[in-house]
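Input record (one chain):
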Amino acid sequence: MDNPNIQLPRPEEGFDRHEPKSGLIALVSGSVIVVLVGMIVGVYWLYMVAYEKVEFEQYSGVASKDLQAIQEREDAHLYKYSYIDKEKGLVRLPIDRAMELLVAETEAGKVFYNTTAYPAKPEPPGGAAGDALKAADAQNESATTTKNAVPPAQN
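The corresponding structure, as predicted from the sequence alone:
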């Protein structure tokens, strides 16, 4: 204790013998708790309002303009006649008319693609993934045997 920078209290000064101001401490603590609870409730309320707004916009039945434009374009492609390429003579038929023509061609036997029904092949154990793994293993095995192959002796 020979440090000259430390000053000890003088005996006539004594110590602070007053009690802490508990009312002020309680007031500050209570106000901090009220502010924190208010912030939590406020953030929750904002989240719920924003969530309900998005939910209302999505499920209220009012479609967005982008969705309406997409549906109109799809309807035009599915239900209206139009030219795809006028020079080549490619036209777009309504889907109902295209199905009628397809049924008529099939009944007349003029279908240009294979319509023969084939029985389904039974799937091996392990499924399609098992076949892919076997093929990969076979390919790796053939690659390693090719690398390790000994060249014929030259005479």
